[in-house]
Structure formats: structure tokens, C-alpha cells
Amino acid sequence: xxxxxxxxxxxxxxxxxxxxxxxxxxxxxxxxxxxxxxxxxxxxxxxxxxxxxxxxxxxxxxxxxxxxxxxxxxxxxxxxxxxxxxxxxxxxxxxxxxxxxxxxxxxxxxxxxxxxxxxxxxxxxxxxxxxxxxxxxxxxxxxxxxxxxxxxxxxxxxxxxxxxxxxxxxxxxxxxxxxxxxxxxxxxxxxxxxxxxxxxxxxxxxxxxxxxxxxxxxxxxxxxxxxxxxxxxxxxxxxxxxxxxxxxxxxxxxxxxxxxxxxxxxxxxxxxxxxxxxxxxxxxxxxxxxxxxxxxxxxxxxxxxxxxxxxxxxxxxxxxxxxxxxxxxxxxxxxxxxxxxxxxxxxxxxxxxxxxxxxxxxxxxxxxxxxxxxxxxxxxxxxxxxxxxxxxxxxxxxxxxxxxxxxxxxxxxxxxxxxxxxxxxxxxxxxxxxxxxxxxxxxxxxxxxxxxxxxxxxxxxxxxxxxxxxxxxxxxxxxxxxxxxxxxxxxxxxxxxx
Length: 498
Ligand SMILES: Cc1cc2nc3c(=O)[nH]c(=O)nc-3n(C[C@H](O)[C@H](O)[C@H](O)COP(=O)(O)OP(=O)(O)OC[C@H]3O[C@@H](n4cnc5c(N)ncnc54)[C@H](O)[C@@H]3O)c2cc1C
Prior knowledge:
By secondary structure, the chain is an alpha+beta fold.
């Protein structure tokens, strides 16, 4: 018989995906062992179980890269420590560039990575072909090879985190749902379950795509939305080497993984399909979503030209599963602005497996110290605004954010969706003066002005952008003549002496 739930724990974690289990593991490593993790069904049954398991280290920002790097360094040690295999295979990864702009982006990423010790090589088409013989490289410009990248088994890795946590005293309970977060005087003080309340000094919300609704019930904004994410797995193929690196062809929105003699082909297509608009079903447990071959077909056509072996392969699995996306493609970590002692770790934008170790480690330290262990502003939940939890806003933005993972990460790139949330009283007059708008915290702000005869549109570039001269003219006007600033979008503080 399962023992009853304790009436209190130092830390209660809601959610037994890879992230919740990593947090439990890292808390116990710090000596915080009075940890209770509640999973409503079974460990991994939300998003974790169906992840492709790519463990890449090069991310959009320095901090996110460091956290992903830590995960890959941890995986072998975790296996040795717990005796539970993680399936980690360090077969490296290749990012392929099909044009000069993409190659520039990859090279910039490579030099950022090198600056803090990530193994990375910039390579040409011939070397790429040597690493990946199945690949068509006739139109390739170059790429980067990260020898320490690889792939892991998400379910086994979660079980390893859970086993490590249990070995040091954490209690992990499946089949118990957190019904709501308990609040007293602006603090989270525990969790109500079907088996009664559990008091806690700290509550951690790591409930994946369910997190937004659980938080909203206590007035906390956790802006994330689920989207459908697709991959196929082929029948076994005789000519697929087992040591193939993971491959990303971002110009064609695809990634490839060798999977026990089969190939897994996944996509980050430009216009995604948001899911769960009416709430995430309570019964969801190891479920998948209906296949949509019409949606996936254009991706598959390009993949077949890129890897001709796919033309002869039967498709064994067409998989469609939901994952959480945030308005800026960065995950949500830390103590919430609205409730003290409530921490979140969710919204992982398809990098939750590779980020799980690093995110779990820094969140555990943040819980212990009640301050960020390092600068985590990139991923701090408090960077986002309440309006970003609006369902329509999130649904619209989610059509874009999934694809942006593989789109060109141009400097100053502007979102195309969910725009016009906040407008200055002068908006129409700014537009008629030629303003080309950008978005900051939901505000539409003129980033530059196009005079008559100049195209009022962004032409992105890694070099000098098309608005350079226009901005220079504004700077000269401010310095030498007169300028009027519209400060509607700036934060305003009311300081009162009482
Ligand atoms: C098709 C696909 C491929 C992917 N491939 C990769 C990849 O290659 N590499 C990578 O890094 N990432 C990948 N991802 C993303 C990765 O799977 C997720 O980012 C990660 O699994 C998120 O983990 P989590 O713990 O935050 O969420 P989840 O795994 O969803 O865990 C949340 C848990 O909380 C539980 N829960 C919810 N509500 C409650 C409640 N009220 N009480 C108790 N428990 C509750 C749920 O049952 C669930 O088990 C992929 C995702 C998809 C969909």
C-alpha cells in the first residue's frame, strides 16, 4: 500500500517531467532533501516521453548555451551515479548552411561558443559529407560541427534524475494531482491535492503545458501555449551508420537523428499549429495528436532531396505531440513576481531535454539562496508581462515562435504576429511621418523613419541594415537641431512619500 502523503515538505514540486525530476535531483544534491514531487499520472507522460532527445549545446544566448552544456556534461555522470542508463550517445552534431547568411550566423554562434570552452569546428561541404555520407551537399556553403553534442533517451534520463533524487531522500509520488496552489498573504504555502493539503516553504511549478492554468488560478502570469510538433521515423534502413551525428538543416526547417538503424526527421515549420486553446485535457497521458500529412509534406519533400535514402524508406511512425512555447522562445524560470515562494520552470520551447540539467541546477540554487546564482535575466519569468498570458495573443504568437527556432536570427528581427497590443496616442501621426514600427513590451514604437521614396520595411542583414542611414539622420537631428520624443512606451514609476 502506498504510504499517505506527508502533511508538509520543504519543497513541493508539481510535475514529473524531465524538468521537475531534474529540479528534485539538484535540490537533493544541495542537501535539500525534504522534497515531495507530485505527478498527476506517470513520470514523463506529458511532453517528455515523446521528445526526439537531441542534446545540442549551442543556444540563442550565452546563458542558455551554458545551461545546455552543463546538461551534456552531466548525462554520463548521472548514469554512473544512479546506475540508470540515459541513452546518451555523444555522436556530435552538424548544422548545415545553404547560403552565406546562414553560414555567417553559424560562425557567429561558433565564436560565441568557443569563448566559453565549447568544442566547435567550422567546416566545409567536403568535411560535412565525410561526417554524414548520406547527405546531399552540392548546394551547401559550410557548417559547424559540435563533437560533444549528441542524443539521449528522455524517458530514461528522467528516470535517472528521479532515481538520484530518491536515493538522497526525495519522495516522488505518481497518480496524485495538484488541484491548486495554496496561498497566504502573498506567498505560496503549499499545494491542495485530492488527498488533502501539503504545506511547503517553496512550491515549484514544473507542470509543462498545464502550468499556465495552474498559475492563473492564483493570479500568476505564466505565458506559454502548446503547439503541435511533428516528426517521422522511418522503417529500419540497412545503410544508415549507427554513429551518424545529429543533423540540422535550418534553411529547410529540418533535423535528423539516427535512431537504432532508423532515421527520425523532425520539423520546425514557419507557420506552426497552436494546440489546446480550450485548456489542456486532464486525461492526457502518453497521448499523441492526430497526424497531419498535408502540413508535414512540404518539409518531407525537402528532406527527401537532402537525404535521398529517404525516398526508399517506409515511414514507420508519424508523430505529432504538443510542446509549450513562450512569446520569445526562451523558457520561464524563477520566483514569480506575483507570489513569493512560488517558483516556475516551464515553457521549454522544444529544448527541455537538453536544458533540463542546467535549468534544474540553477533553479535549485535559486531556491536555496532566494536569489539568482548567475545572471538569468534571459530566462527569468519576470521578464514577461501580464498581457502576454492573454489567450489570443499567445495563440497568435505561437504560430510564429516554433518556426523562429530555425529561422535566421537576424539582429533586431521583429515579430510579425500578435502585434499592436499597446499603441501610443500618437500612433497614427507617427505612421504618417513614415515610422517603421518595432515592438517593445507590446508597445508599437517607431524604430526608424522612412522618408518619401524610401521603402518602409526592414531588410535584415548581418552587416549594415537598410535603416542605418535613417537612424544616423535622426541622431544628427537630435544633436544639431530639435527632436520630439514620444515616451508613451517607457515605464513610469510613481514615487510617493507617505
Ligand atoms: C515532438 C517533440 C520533440 C522534441 N524533441 C526535443 C529534443 O530533441 N530535445 C529537447 O531538448 N527537447 C525536445 N522536445 C521538448 C521537450 O520534450 C520538452 O521541452 C520537455 O519534455 C519539457 O519537460 P517538462 O518537464 O517541462 O514538461 P512535461 O514533460 O510535460 O512534464 C510536466 C508534467 O507535469 C504533470 N502535471 C501537469 N499538471 C499537474 C498537476 N496538476 N499535478 C501534478 N502533475 C501535473 C504532467 O502530467 C507532466 O508529466 C520535444 C518536444 C516534442 C513535442
